[in-house]
Amino acid sequence: MTELGTGIRDVAALKVPRVGRVAETGDPLRPFVLLGEQSAEVAAVAEFLHHMLADDARPSSLRSYAYQLLAWFRFLNAIEVAWDVAGRAEARDFALWLKTVKKPARPRRPDAPAPGSVNPLTGKATPGQNYAPRTRRHARAAIRSFYEYHREMHGRPLINPFPQAKGVEDGSLNAHHNPVQPFRQPSRRAAYQPKEPKPAPRSIPDQAFSELFAALASNRAAIEEAAALEADALILVSGGLVTGSRDLGLARRMITDAIAELAPRAQELGVRLGIEPLHPMFCADRCVLVRLGDAVDLALQFPANAVGVVVDTYNVWWDSAVAADIARASGRIVSYQLGDWVSPLPADALLGRAHLGDGSIDFGPITRQVLAAGYTGYAEVEIFNQQVWNTPADETASTVKARFATLLG
Q1: Is 134 found in the same domain as 270?
Q2: What is the rounded end-to-end Cα distance, in angstroms, of the chain?
């Protein structure tokens, strides 16, 4: 056992056994507990988490703090120091250990990027093998809060291993504050506090910018054409991933930015934009908005007379949340499209839309939900199917009319 406060531990050679665990209890008054050796609950941590819960902390915060304290107690167990006698030397060595130790390995996809690698398209780094500065800062904050609670609650001699910045604890920093001057901030970081990382500004790559502005030009032209034709709405199929990218977030942000650019002009010309989500099988190349809820969330950011949504049975029938999302879209449905889902799908999945009644979709409930949401426009039967296309037009029209009358009255 190392004598407290003396010497330098060989942190590189230190083996920290994975003793203990954080357990979820299902009890709303103690949602998470820290279990030590032999699954015994750590009483000091239980008391602190109980205090946090009473102070209106969320269960997720309790879980997060419990995991940081688990790391601290594991470290103290490895160096054979009790938590209530740990001091600055232990804080120093823990900070160094947390900075250098590798995170426990987790299963990864075979095609996953290497830890710490940077996406060449977005500039976003994947999580590295070591703990990030933000994680280490959070660990320090959690442990410090734990000790401060016990110092204030029990009043016993207890050192907080992680001090605040100089001048903060003793109140001397602004003791003689001039009221006409701003309050001074601590001149340096607190001991063993990792430097706050400065995030690199997120940017859209050049290729993505090119695609975005090319799309904006064509969409502006489409709005002008729709206005000239006195069309009520222009339906938007928003596009798939950016060329060479797998970043769904980037693609969806670009859609939001593009609609924000287009909406004022569309509103000025009296053309309503209708955001149409497509089935998830089209996510990569045709539309990264795959649920009606995605489209509704986006449309709600804009005036109702400028941006709405399209309900297409072929694309949304599978979604368990479709009824709730149709209700949320009340007053914003700009088009209702019908097409049936046939199995198996053809080689070209886009040509899988069949006559109503030939597939798996129950049109009645969706139609009633759309009507209840205030939609009074046309119902468009939209069929992409080579066999139907090869059929004489008058025969197809008769079939559409008969099926519509039978299934929707």
Answers
A1: no
A2: 84
